[in-house]
Structures are given as structure tokens and as C-alpha cells.
Task: inverse folding
């Protein structure tokens, strides 16, 4: 059961772990895998999470644990970090490209068939 987040600007990794049900070592690992998850650090070097970071954590948790995505699959589904110059769209596979191409072709055919 998830606890309601207190309304503050910043949260410690322990607080975030309690709120989200994700252990601190997993949160630290996810930082290395997901560019969208980059909590700031305070002067002492401790991670400080904002509400946006917590939303990303909950989305990652849902994708991995509830929806059954792999890390690579979750990366493709996750919106990219705003203002992150390294955040690029995930490279799509050949299958995704084929599906997208077929979708466009079908839409064009539909438009042709619908025109009088």
C-alpha cells in the first residue's frame, strides 16, 4: 500500500522508497538506466527527489512490475526528460518501423477509398 506523499519540495531517498514501495538500491539502479530519472543532490551529496521524480518512479514501476516490460521496453515507453540534451528518442526496431509503415499505408488507402 502506497503512502500519501507529504507536500514538500524535496524528499529523501528513504522517503521516496517508502512512498513508492521501491527499495533505495533499486532507485539508484534505475537512475543509471533511465535518463528521465535524475534527482538532484544536496550539498552533502544526498539525493533529493521532487514530485516529478516520484511520478517518473511510479511510471517506471508500473511499466516494469505491472505491465511486464523489460528495462529496454520501459525505456521506449517512458517520456524523455525535458531539457536533457542526452535524451533522444529510443531507437526503434525493424518491426516497429514495419508496423508504422503499414499503418501509414493503410491510412492512405482508407483516404483513397473514402473520397467520392
Result:
Amino acid at each position: 500500500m502506497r503512502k500519501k506523499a507529504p507536500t514538500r519540495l524535496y524528499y529523501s531517498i528513504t522517503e521516496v522508497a517508502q512512498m513508492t514501495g521501491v527499495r533505495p538500491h533499486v532507485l539508484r539502479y534505475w537512475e543509471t538506466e533511465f535518463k528521465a530519472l535524475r534527482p538532484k543532490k544536496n550539498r552533502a551529496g544526498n539525493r533529493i527527489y521532487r514530485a516529478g521524480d516520484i511520478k517518473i518512479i511510479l511510471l517506471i514501476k508500473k511499466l516494469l512490475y505491472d505491465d511486464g516490460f523489460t528495462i529496454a521496453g520501459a525505456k521506449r515507453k517512458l517520456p524523455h526528460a525535458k531539457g536533457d540534451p542526452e535524451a533522444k528518442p529510443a531507437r526503434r526496431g525493424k518491426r516497429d518501423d514495419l508496423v508504422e509503415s503499414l499503418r501509414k499505408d493503410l491510412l492512405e488507402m482508407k483516404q483513397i477509398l473514402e473520397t467520392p
